[in-house]
Design a protein that fits this description.
Shape: globular
CATH topology of one domain: Sortase, Chain: A
Largest sheet: 8 strands, mixed, barrel
Strand content: 25-35%
Number of strands: 12
CATH superfamily of one domain: Sortase
Order of helices and strands: HHEEHEEEEEEEEHEE
Length: 248
């Protein structure tokens, strides 16, 4: 075959034969318009395609799940300072009271049950849903409820015994109608309260709506454990509850 015909044949094979070779697959990120570039500091810099996707100007086609969505180690976040304007503040949790400007209780004296004085500390809720109760020598005030003097039930709880120590409400079962005790507040004021009822409930029958009332008549509710001790549960079977109102 003459040389010029051989060269023409070789060129024809090279041109027509390319169709049988698989083209290299595009990068998954590029195929979906998610190409990333990184600055020397390692901060992600978004391309125009990615910015369009985040701001809602993309074509609308869904992109494949990221490695984080698949349960693998998350890839670098597609976040830049340019997107800060898209961040909105979440609403506050429903049902959690806003901070109050009223005085909060800081101390209690109830000599009729042997309590010469104990510090009151604000408490919340345990992971298991129960009210927190501080160590033996302190009394807990349920901070998500009313403060003493506000409408509703201001709950003060303490142990009868804790870690081998006598609890602040060890003798709350001895509370009697007519007993008086005093509460000190963080603004330096003091108020006197009188017990109007003392009762005992099975822990499964504690009237939560009354004990933790958020409105209605102003009352202080003192709570501790009582009844028989259950070693298997490391707990007492009952609650002792005393209700008191402000006097004088």
């Amino acid at each position: 075959m003459p040389l010029f015909r051989l060269l023409a044949f070789v060129c024809l094979v090279l041109v027509t034969g390319c169709g049988s070779l698989a083209a290299p697959a595009p990068d998954a990120g590029q195929a979906q318009g998610t190409e990333r570039r990184f600055t020397t500091e390692g901060t992600p810099e978004l391309t125009a395609d990615v910015a369009a996707e985040v701001t809602g100007d993309a074509t609308g086609e869904s992109s494949p799940p990221t490695s984080a969505e698949q349960g693998d180690e998350p890839s670098p976040s597609r976040v830049s300072s340019d997107l800060s304007s898209l961040v909105t503040e979440l609403p506050s949790a429903i049902g959690v009271p806003s901070p109050s400007s009223v005085p909060t209780p800081v101390g209690i004296r109830y000599e009729a049950i042997g309590l010469d004085g104990a510090e009151i500390v604000p408490v919340g809720v345990e992971a298991n849903g129960e009210m927190e109760v501080p160590e033996a020598s302190r009394v807990g005030w349920y901070r998500f409820g009313p403060s003493p003097g506000e409408p509703g039930s201001a709950v003060l709880a303490a142990h009868i015994a804790y870690d081998g120590e006598r609890g602040a409400f060890r003798d709350l079962a001895d509370a009697t109608s007519g007993h008086r005790f005093s509460i000190d507040f963080d603004d330096g004021s003091t108020a006197t309260y009188e017990v109007i009822e003392r009762t005992q409930y099975d822990k499964n029958e504690l009237p939560f709506d009354a004990v933790f009332a958020q409105g209605g008549p102003s009352v202080i509710t003192l709570i501790s454990c009582g009844g028989s001790f259950q070693p298997s549960l490391a707990s007492y079977e009952d609650n002792i509850v005393a209700y008191a109102v402000a006097v004088g």
